[in-house]
């Protein structure tokens, strides 16, 4: 985090310098695309200096470095406050926010693509990108909502068709885009068009697919969303703080301002604060209950008997620790929420692998000589600058849930059963009844 | 098909011409990357003239144009014969072939990427691409085989772990590649490395994901694989033949040698020959039976009571046709295999949308000024040149099956229910009972 901030201050001149340097050597340059990339740096959104006027006026007396520090700080807390407000707003608010963030991120990535390949004369391409965004959202959101709203959907006739043929409809929509792309090919621009086509698809892969995973996590219970997101934020902030005060040993060439001290300090803080946060949240049904559609109530609910993950459980300590506890005559068991163990894995991932998401984004920005992905958040750059690691984390959490938490739940299967035709549901019911009676699990009545 | 062949003959000089032209105008050129692309055309595999020596000697007396025609013809029939042989070899042979084709296609796409971005000094990158190929294959093939070999796998302890945590293991493997990529970033090559990273991922998306879909289709029954593949081949060949004899009206700028006559003639032939072929294959269990693991036999079987799709069924003709049949005193019903209707949809797709896969590939080749993707098949170019449309078709068939053939069967769901713990099965049973009673489908007893 610190790395981005500092580049923000000093980079405008650095970029210009780079451009000049390259012009001198462009004749023998091995790096063919470099010159154009450097030139294009000027046409790209270089944001971050865009500050609200009132704030600008109030801070005008401060030196540049501090002014930026204050702006960045203010907007960090504003974002955290906003995040809390959205959580208070409930799951629907969170999903809408995810969607908005996704669209903004896609826009930022695509805008960089346009600037890199400098396509101005091809009006179809902008429409095509957005068309693919809508199509893939239709596909992914459909897959999500279908599962959870099965009961409602099955009551309405035409919605049923949309569900049954969801994949086919999505595929047809995609094919329309594909044919449209092929027809839009213009000889002069072949290479640029194909590059942008690939660019769009990679953007979709990163942004849309992963925001779909985020929505899935939200449905598992708000805790699966809030804890990982907060861990990344905590890790970012604490790495910055530790780096600022104790940073000495450089960590990686890619981000010269990141230090081992920040990395380790941030990691330890993430584990501790993550556990603390999880412990508190485990106690509220609002956070731990999966979001389900209740047929009885006719609406979404977040009320449940918390699963065993969120009920305190006694664990026997490993033997090596038991020798210590015996010495002090302590108990050889601990009582914790099992979720805390999962919280531990997540915090380790977010502090060890998470930063690589940041390195990746920062390498990407350097590759195309841009400082930030956009200029939406004063002091922070674009939305994508704040969410680069979140996407990686969301995928981890999703895979983690499906591997360790979610071994085929009756609830999910039931939802699939409700998707069947009524007579098929009855058939399944009868077969199941017979099978259960057969195995003596059910008393014949 | 004709388009590729003809370019093959005359293009060597055309490419050189282009390069010269561009050098004249490169100062004001709007197309920044063009010059390098042209130059690189010389370093890329331009294949196709690579012919076995014996054949070369035997055909040396023929004029160039005819020589190529004969070579291409010979290898077309050789490939068709090879395809039949592999089908005779059974599903395992087909799956292995799919895997080999996939690896070759990936190699061809990646090789073009290397040539385009001229990366020679970065040894890690080649390893990385292959690592990602292996990882994604592990993930996709695992997902496939898990479903079909569930019974066998559950018997072996360590395999069970691989299955339960399959996604997690795959994700970890991917993360290793991701971190490796970030660590391999070198300042000088940032942009090239990111471009190749994207290139690799798009290649994976096209090649690995779709070959996974192909394998899924094979499991549904060989007919779902053989018919679509043959349709694309028939369409290619017949479009060439019709274009050769009657071609007059150009179809699309992208492929100047393709004509409306070829497009329409090819389409009609595909529908007719596709139906004929489906009709014949419907009668053999070898083709229509899904591939399943039989617990009783302890091995894979392709024996079954053919599903209703492959049993002749009586259809009433639509009213407009009935007036005609009444005139001639014919029956107002027809008896056909329901599969023939699906075959019709597939042949329409393969002849209307299929060619766009070809246009896309041919646009791609033009964008990077290459004639063919490789030089493996004399007269045809690379493997990818022959399989471009197959991938699009395979996706269509897969989506088609999941939407129209495979609408969640009670049988499959029950199988999943039986995999739950006994108490979960009871819970599901009770909830289902309540839901069905609630909706009045079940009488409360």
From TrEMBL, chains A, B:
<feature type="transmembrane region" description="Helical">
    <location>
        <begin position="195"/>
        <end position="215"/>
    </location>
</feature>
<dbReference type="InterPro" id="IPR000374">
    <property type="entry name" value="PC_trans"/>
</dbReference>
<keyword id="KW-0594">Phospholipid biosynthesis</keyword>
<dbReference type="InterPro" id="IPR016720">
    <property type="entry name" value="PC_Trfase_euk"/>
</dbReference>
<comment type="pathway">
    <text>Phospholipid metabolism; CDP-diacylglycerol biosynthesis; CDP-diacylglycerol from sn-glycerol 3-phosphate: step 3/3.</text>
</comment>
<dbReference type="GO" id="GO:0004605">
    <property type="term" value="F:phosphatidate cytidylyltransferase activity"/>
</dbReference>
<feature type="compositionally biased region" description="Basic and acidic residues">
    <location>
        <begin position="20"/>
        <end position="31"/>
    </location>
</feature>
<feature type="transmembrane region" description="Helical">
    <location>
        <begin position="124"/>
        <end position="141"/>
    </location>
</feature>
<feature type="transmembrane region" description="Helical">
    <location>
        <begin position="221"/>
        <end position="247"/>
    </location>
</feature>
<dbReference type="GO" id="GO:0016024">
    <property type="term" value="P:CDP-diacylglycerol biosynthetic process"/>
</dbReference>
<comment type="pathway">
    <text>Lipid metabolism.</text>
</comment>
<keyword id="KW-0548">Nucleotidyltransferase</keyword>
<keyword id="KW-0444">Lipid biosynthesis</keyword>
<comment type="similarity">
    <text>Belongs to the CDS family.</text>
</comment>
<keyword id="KW-0443">Lipid metabolism</keyword>
<protein>
    <recommendedName>
        <fullName>Phosphatidate cytidylyltransferase</fullName>
        <ecNumber>2.7.7.41</ecNumber>
    </recommendedName>
</protein>
<feature type="transmembrane region" description="Helical">
    <location>
        <begin position="339"/>
        <end position="361"/>
    </location>
</feature>
<feature type="transmembrane region" description="Helical">
    <location>
        <begin position="69"/>
        <end position="88"/>
    </location>
</feature>
<dbReference type="GO" id="GO:0005789">
    <property type="term" value="C:endoplasmic reticulum membrane"/>
</dbReference>
<feature type="transmembrane region" description="Helical">
    <location>
        <begin position="259"/>
        <end position="280"/>
    </location>
</feature>
<keyword id="KW-1208">Phospholipid metabolism</keyword>
<keyword id="KW-0472">Membrane</keyword>
<keyword id="KW-0808">Transferase</keyword>
<feature type="transmembrane region" description="Helical">
    <location>
        <begin position="161"/>
        <end position="183"/>
    </location>
</feature>
<dbReference type="Pfam" id="PF01148">
    <property type="entry name" value="CTP_transf_1"/>
</dbReference>
<feature type="region of interest" description="Disordered">
    <location>
        <begin position="1"/>
        <end position="31"/>
    </location>
</feature>
<keyword id="KW-1133">Transmembrane helix</keyword>
<keyword id="KW-0812">Transmembrane</keyword>
């Amino acid at each position: 985090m610190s790395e981005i901030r500092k580049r923000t201050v000093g980079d405008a001149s650095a970029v210009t310098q780079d451009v000049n340097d390259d012009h001198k050597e462009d004749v023998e340059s091995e790096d063919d695309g470099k010159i154009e990339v450097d030139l294009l740096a000027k046409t790209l959104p270089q944001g971050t200096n865009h500050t609200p006027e009132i704030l600008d006026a109030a801070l005008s007396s401060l030196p540049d470095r501090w002014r930026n520090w204050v702006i960045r700080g203010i907007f960090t807390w504003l974002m955290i406050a906003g995040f809390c407000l959205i959580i208070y707003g409930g799951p629907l608010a969170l999903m809408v926010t995810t969607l908005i963030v996704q669209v903004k991120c896609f826009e930022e990535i695509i805008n960089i693509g346009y600037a890199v390949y400098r396509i101005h004369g091809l009006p179809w391409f902008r429409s095509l990108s957005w068309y693919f965004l809508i199509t893939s959202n239709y596909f992914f959101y459909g897959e999500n909502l279908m599962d959870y709203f099965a009961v409602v959907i099955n009551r309405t006739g035409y919605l049923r068709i949309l569900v049954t043929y969801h994949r086919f409809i999505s595929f047809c929509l995609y094919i329309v885009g594909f044919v449209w792309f092929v027809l839009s090919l213009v000889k002069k621009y072949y290479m640029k068009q194909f590059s942008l086509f690939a660019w769009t698809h990679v953007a979709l892969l990163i942004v849309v697919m992963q925001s779909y995973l985020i929505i899935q996590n939200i449905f598992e219970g708000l805790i699966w969303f809030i804890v990982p997101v907060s861990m990344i934020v905590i890790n970012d902030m604490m790495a910055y703080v530790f780096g600022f005060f104790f940073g000495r040993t450089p960590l990686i060439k890619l981000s010269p301002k990141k230090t081992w001290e920040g990395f380790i300090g941030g990691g330890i803080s993430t584990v501790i604060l993550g556990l603390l946060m999880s412990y508190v949240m485990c106690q509220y049904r609002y956070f731990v209950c999966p979001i389900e559609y209740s047929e009885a109530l006719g609406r979404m609910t977040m009320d449940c008997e918390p699963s065993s993950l969120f009920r305190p459980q006694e664990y026997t300590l490993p033997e090596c620790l038991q020798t210590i506890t015996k010495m002090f005559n302590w108990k050889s068991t601990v009582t914790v929420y099992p979720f805390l163990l999962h919280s531990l894995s997540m915090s380790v991932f977010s502090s060890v692998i998470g930063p690589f998401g940041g390195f990746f984004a920062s390498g990407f920005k350097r590759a195309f000589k841009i400082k930030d992905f956009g200029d939406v958040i004063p002091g922070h750059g674009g939305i994508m600058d704040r969410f680069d690691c979140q996407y990686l984390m969301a995928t981890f959490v999703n895979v983690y849930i499906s591997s360790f938490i979610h071994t085929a739940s009756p609830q999910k299967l039931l939802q699939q059963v409700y998707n069947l035709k009524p007579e098929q549901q009855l058939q399944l019911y009868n077969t199941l009844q017979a099978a259960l009676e057969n195995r003596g699990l059910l008393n014949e009545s």
